[in-house]
Amino acid sequence: MLRVEGLCSGYGRIQALHGVDIHVAKGEIVTLVGANGAGKTTLLMTICGNPRASAGKVLLDGEDITRLPTHLIMRKGLAHSPEGRRVFPRMTVLENLQMGAALGDPRHFDQDLERTLALFPRLKERLNQRGGTLSGGEQQMLAIARALMSRPQVLLLDEPSLGLAPLVVRHIFEIIAAINRDHGVTIFLVEQNAFHALKLAHRGYVMVNGKVALSGTGAELLANPEIRAHYLDGGVS
């Protein structure tokens, strides 16, 4: 469904990605873990077209989308819930969801809204509340819900657990599992919380300094002594 081949990109003279190869099959949850500065967010942003790849390809369902503008990439069935949530703080929850649906078919809006609010009942209670007044966990739910309103085939999630309390983190990961299991959305998940991410994922990759250093099933990576030493021991929550 999503394939990255030899991808290189960066910012000005700073190269952040060095020949990254990753694939995400239809129906999978694939996670990418790594330390701060490893290039995880840059990879997601490059998939979305900003920054542009300096080399390599991004394929979505077999189609080369590497050089397409971002808005056309989104129309191909990709959606992105960014790091830091980035909800529209002065807009209501409903208005944020309407923004997420802007690239979709308006005929499906009511159906998509009902489906999304069934996943996020807390947002249903706050439809007329401004996004900036929500708690951190609620804002993260809104960011994911907004991305789902475009009916994506592939959902990119960037650090959905960042800054959240452990109980809220568990709830967010339960919702991610339901989006994949019950709605058939393919998910590429970038996370620093390696324990929860690898426990959830079918497969995973480990990124170090802009390169993929390890890959395997979620269970294999959880059991890997090197992964445990660098990302798990003392950090399981």
UniProtKB/TrEMBL annotation:
<dbReference type="GO" id="GO:0015807">
    <property type="term" value="P:L-amino acid transport"/>
</dbReference>
<comment type="similarity">
    <text>Belongs to the ABC transporter superfamily.</text>
</comment>
<dbReference type="Pfam" id="PF00005">
    <property type="entry name" value="ABC_tran"/>
</dbReference>
<dbReference type="InterPro" id="IPR003439">
    <property type="entry name" value="ABC_transporter-like_ATP-bd"/>
</dbReference>
<dbReference type="InterPro" id="IPR017871">
    <property type="entry name" value="ABC_transporter-like_CS"/>
</dbReference>
<keyword id="KW-0547">Nucleotide-binding</keyword>
<dbReference type="GO" id="GO:0016887">
    <property type="term" value="F:ATP hydrolysis activity"/>
</dbReference>
<dbReference type="InterPro" id="IPR027417">
    <property type="entry name" value="P-loop_NTPase"/>
</dbReference>
<keyword id="KW-0067">ATP-binding</keyword>
<dbReference type="GO" id="GO:0015658">
    <property type="term" value="F:branched-chain amino acid transmembrane transporter activity"/>
</dbReference>
<keyword id="KW-0029">Amino-acid transport</keyword>
<keyword id="KW-0813">Transport</keyword>
<dbReference type="InterPro" id="IPR003593">
    <property type="entry name" value="AAA+_ATPase"/>
</dbReference>
<dbReference type="InterPro" id="IPR052156">
    <property type="entry name" value="BCAA_Transport_ATP-bd_LivF"/>
</dbReference>
<feature type="domain" description="ABC transporter">
    <location>
        <begin position="2"/>
        <end position="234"/>
    </location>
</feature>
<dbReference type="GO" id="GO:0005524">
    <property type="term" value="F:ATP binding"/>
</dbReference>
<protein>
    <submittedName>
        <fullName>ABC transporter ATP-binding protein</fullName>
    </submittedName>
</protein>
